[in-house]
Amino acid sequence: MVGAPANFDNRYLATDVEGLAIQMQLSNNTVMSVNKAWTNKDPRNWPSLYALLIKDPKAKLDTGTFKASATMVILVQ
Questions:
Q1: What is the maximal distance between C-alpha atoms in the chain?
Q2: What spatial distance separates the first Cα and last Cα of the chain, rounded to whole Å?
């Protein structure tokens, strides 16, 4: 996954709201970090991918909309 990392934790995808990020997590609870490669070791068993909202513990968030953007690059060998 290629995108802008959150300023409070570079594993997470930044949003346009300061203090709010998106964590991509695989079904085995592994965090898929932004701009880091991940390899599936078992091609017969692909994990599910989940997006979770993560708040910077120091941030005070208001309700409202947000935007985020990333590119998922998949290489099959």
A1: 44
A2: 18
pLDDT category at 68 given cuts 50, 70, 90 is very high
Q: Give CA–CA dist 76/58, Å, rounded.
A: 40
What radius of gyration do the chain's Cα atoms show? 14
pLDDT tens digits for range 4-48: 999 999 999 999 999 999 999 998 888 999 999 888 878 788 889
Q: Report in angstroms the alpha-carbon separations of 10 from 22, 36, 47, 50, 77.
A: 11, 10, 23, 18, 28
- For the purposes of burial, counting CB atoms within 10 Å of the CB of 31, is it exposed (0-12), middle (13-18) or buried (19 or more)? middle
d(CA 7, CA 54): 12
